[in-house]
Amino acid sequence: MSKDLMRLDGRVAVVTGAAGLLGRRHCEALADAGATVFACDLSAKAAQEVAQNLGTQHVGMALDVTNDETIMELRSRLLDEHGGVDVLVNNAAMNDMVESPLSSVESSRFENYPVKLFRRVMDVNVTGVFLMSQIIGSIMAESGKGSIINIASTYGVVAPDQSIYRSTSGEQTFYKSAAYPTSKGAVIMLTKFLATYWGHRGVRANCLSPGGVENGQSEQFIEQYSRRTPLGRMATSTDYQAALVFLASDASRYMTGQNLIVDGGWTAW
């Protein structure tokens, strides 16, 4: 296989949620492969910082994936400055995490989980992907080429294992809510829709489903997660970069409508 298949020279890529833990790594991977990256995040300052770290040709801009007006601004810039877009990484998402200081066992319990928060998660994680794909993906459809990569999750494939959130004494310290898994399951199905809807227009749509990333969790949680994973560890933030470039590049040119799971084997049992 030619190494050129994994190159993205001359292509333009958009990454939402670019200032997040994985968003930054997605931007780095695409830039290293030769793409010009539009790093988009709610915070203009954070997005611009990401872009500056990548190099002078990259762009950082504020974007709210639930606001079609801000997405239209991005669309205009892409068309005016580059004549289109080649790669869209729908990475922005809300995720209730065990390491969050705002998380508590009572508020995360399904019986108590606020419907307002459930709706907000669905708005960002699902409606955001819908709007970005509709407004930015349509540029690809009009030009007859492009790759949409939706960041899903293992929890869009299997239900959360609530036992990994228990203390050594067996006390539940946190519950993974229904919101995140529900939203990521919807993202996987929306991806299949996009693949079949725009396939004849040359647009590919795939998911990348990562497993848990080590990021300041307690030693106990890391140990329990790792024990549950065949490869025996949580992911690092760079473990998904090659998979992302693969989906963005011509190396995956005959792949669409699929969910690429990179999870250390978590979903294998």
The CATH first-level class comes to Alpha Beta
CATH topology: Rossmann fold
Q: Examine the secondary-structure arrangement and name the CATH architecture.
A: 3-Layer(aba) Sandwich
**Major pleated sheet:** 7 strands, parallel
Q: Secondary-structure element sequence?
A: EHEHEHEHHHEHEHHE
- What number of structural domains do the residues give? 1
Structural class: alpha/beta
Q: What is the averaged pLDDT score?
A: 95
Give start-end ranges of low-pLDDT stretches: none
Number of strands: 7
Distance between the termini: 32 Å
Principal-axes shape call = globular
Distinct helical segment count: 9
Helix content: 25-40%
Please describe what this structure looks like.
By secondary structure, the chain is α/β, with parallel strands linked by helices. The protein has a single domain, classed as NAD(P)-binding Rossmann-like Domain (Rossmann fold, 3-Layer(aba) Sandwich), CATH 3.40.50.720. Helix content is 40%, strand content 14%. It contains 9 helices and 7 strands. The protein has helices at residues 21-32, 44-54, 68-82, 105-108, 115-135, 137-143, 179-198, 219-227, 241-248, and strands spanning 12-16, 36-41, 59-62, 87-90, 146-151, 203-210, 259-262. Strands 3-2-1-4-5-6-7 form a 7-stranded parallel beta sheet, sandwiched between helices. Helix 7 (179-198) links the parallel strand 5 and strand 6 (203-210). Helix 1 packs across helix 9 and helix 5 (115-135) runs parallel beside helix 7 (179-198). The longest helix is centred in the middle third of the chain and has 21 residues, at 115-135. It is globular. It starts with 11 loop residues before the first strand and ends in a 7-residue tail after the last strand. 43% of the residues are buried.
